[in-house]
Design brief:
The protein contains eight helices and 16 strands. By secondary structure, it is α+β, with helices and mostly antiparallel strands. It has a single domain, classed as HIT family, subunit A, CATH 3.30.428. Strands 1-2-5-7-9-8-13-14-12-11-10 form an eleven-stranded antiparallel β-sheet. α2 packs across α5. The longest helix is centred in the C-terminal third of the chain and has 20 residues. The radius of gyration is 21 Å and the shape is globular. The relative contact order is 0.13.
Length: 403
């Protein structure tokens, strides 16, 4: 399955538990954690989990649509004292029973799972069947969906984390990618973060998700077709060209971030590792360490473009579990519909109906604006602050990450 064994960071403790209805819960402790090893048990009385969703194929495109009606009942913008991702209290019977640094648990109303495929089924035969076109074809939405809580704080995003906490989240992505890729029937593993009401976020709590699909997603299928046409060096050649071009935003020893040549969105950023890495599980500890700082720098620059936080989707594309692992490289695609301080790009007829995009901003102009914002963020971070302000900021950050 994987061409590289998953390397785990022994400094970050992993503590496995169960929720009251049997769902998996995994705690990841920061390197500099102040938490004790013990975790409280989940003593809630919960209803049985909803029935597995099912998929239907669109014969006009070959795409599979998961019909997950139970998701209609999920929590929508609750008050802070009823935050379902905060540690449990007497008044808040949330999903996580104990105080935590980073916590990952199975979604209570998943789009895929909790049922899994037959472990004896052939992946090649299953994928060939899924790619065949027919009328009114259905399949069970097997797989797994998990929630990744970045912090116990009620509000925030990945960009508001400390570097230590960011590193813990990246370790959780690597751990869960390896574990989920080993589940029967899982063909693609997708970590992502939705940020902002404009994107449709229903919880302000800093968190992301991981979807484990029972098929290769349409976006990845198009990438595989492009690789088949161009050749297996497509992603490496794109990175080499961009690293020497005008749209680079940040570059380190192991990673480079840039605005792509044919960006669709007003804000679109790609971030790739310099060597071929199919997924998070195959990254080295040094690559994860650098990514923690570089990714924070990138997100904080995106937020500095305007006076208010920028909505975005941070999508970590990984190679399929069983195919093209030597061709498809791990890549972040961060997109935002924000085209001005008070304007959003809405998908109109051409984009939504035909998939024919019209860009509002040239990628070169977007790259220049993002570079200025990133440099301004760096300058602000390097500037000395008054002692009282520094002490207040430190106290606030500590309270936010340990509350």
């Amino acid at each position: 399955m994987h061409d590289t064994d998953h390397v785990s960071d022994a400094r970050i403790a992993v503590r496995e538990a169960k929720l009251a209805d049997g769902r998996d819960l995994i705690y990841f402790d920061d390197v500099d954690t102040t938490l004790a090893p013990e975790r409280r048990a989940d003593e809630r009385v919960l209803d049985p989990r909803p029935a597995n969703a099912h998929m239907r194929q669109d014969p006009l495109t070959g795409e599979w649509i998961s019909i997950a009606a139970a998701r209609q009942n999920r929590v929508f913008l609750p008050p802070a004292h009823l935050d379902p991702l905060a540690p449990q209290t007497v008044d808040n019977p949330s999903e996580i029973p104990s105080v935590y640094d980073v916590a990952v648990f199975e979604n209570r109303s998943p789009s895929f799972g909790p049922e899994l495929a037959d472990p004896d089924a052939s992946s090649a035969e299953t994928l060939a069947d899924l790619r065949r076109i027919g009328l009114e074809r259905t399949r069970s939405s097997v797989g797994r969906c998990e929630v990744v809580c970045f912090s116990p704080a009620h509000e925030g995003s990945f960009g508001s984390l400390t570097r230590s906490r960011a590193r813990t989240v990246i370790e959780a992505w690597a751990h869960r990618t390896a574990a989920l890729s080993a589940l029967p029937g899982v063909e693609e593993v997708f970590p992502f973060e939705n940020r902002g009401r404009e994107i449709g976020v229903t919880l302000p709590h800093p968190h992301g998700q991981i979807y484990s699909y029972p098929y290769v997603t349409p976006r990845t299928e198009r990438l595989l077709a492009a690789i088949d046409d161009y050749g297996p060096t497509l992603m490496a050649d794109i990175l080499d060209r961009e690293r020497n071009g005008p749209r680079v935003l940040l570059s380190g020893e192991h990673w480079t971030a840039f605005v792509p040549f044919a960006a669709r969105w007003p804000i679109e950023i790609h971030l790739l590792p310099h060597r071929h890495v199919p997924d998070f599980a195959a990254t080295t500890l040094a690559e994860r360490d650098e990514l923690a700082g570089l990714y924070l720098q990138l997100l904080q620059g995106v937020d500095r473009l305007y006076d208010t936080p920028t909505p975005y989707i941070a999508a970590w594309h990984q190679a399929p579990v069983h195919e093209h692992r030597d061709d498809v490289r791990l890549m972040l695609q961060l997109t935002s519909p924000r085209r001005a301080a008070d304007k959003l790009k809405y998908l109109a007829g051409s984009e939504a109906a035909k998939g024919a995009w019209i860009g509002d901003v040239t990628p070169e102009a977007a790259a220049e604006a993002l570079r200025r914002a990133i440099h301004a963020t760096d300058a602000a971070a390097d500037a000395p602050a008054p002692a009282t302000a520094t002490a207040t900021a430190t106290a606030t950050a500590t309270e936010g990450t340990r509350a």
